[in-house]
Design goal:
The chain has six helices and no strands. The chain is an all-alpha fold and 97 residues long. Helix 2 packs across helix 3. The termini are far apart.
């Protein structure tokens, strides 16, 4: 028996289930589009138990026609805030290109 908990300490809140239902897609269809034979990974993504790889995240963006940042809004905000804090600590300024 392992000491691995059934549920990870951190869940990654996302909009995957809502987006899937809005598009009228089954988990089986999404799994197939992502290249999975079973729905297990789709369920784990939707429950926030796992984060997709970059490739899978981009595939989800394409399937649901919405940017990854909107699929994982809390993660995006957390990463953005962390980077902005580091930038300001290091005297980096925002520049417009």
């Amino acid at each position: 028996m392992t000491n691995t908990p059934k549920h990870p300490k951190h869940k990654f809140r996302n909009e995957l289930e809502v987006l899937r239902l809005r598009r009228g897609l089954s988990r089986k269809t999404v799994a197939r589009l992502l290249g999975f034979k079973k729905t297990t990974q789709v369920i784990r993504f939707e429950k926030g138990e796992r984060l997709p790889t970059l490739t899978k995240a981009l595939q989800l963006e394409i399937i649901y026609r919405i940017p990854v940042a909107f699929i994982y809004p809390d993660l995006y905000a957390s990463l953005r805030d962390e980077i902005r804090t580091d930038e300001s600590k290091n005297g980096m300024q925002q520049t417009l290109s």
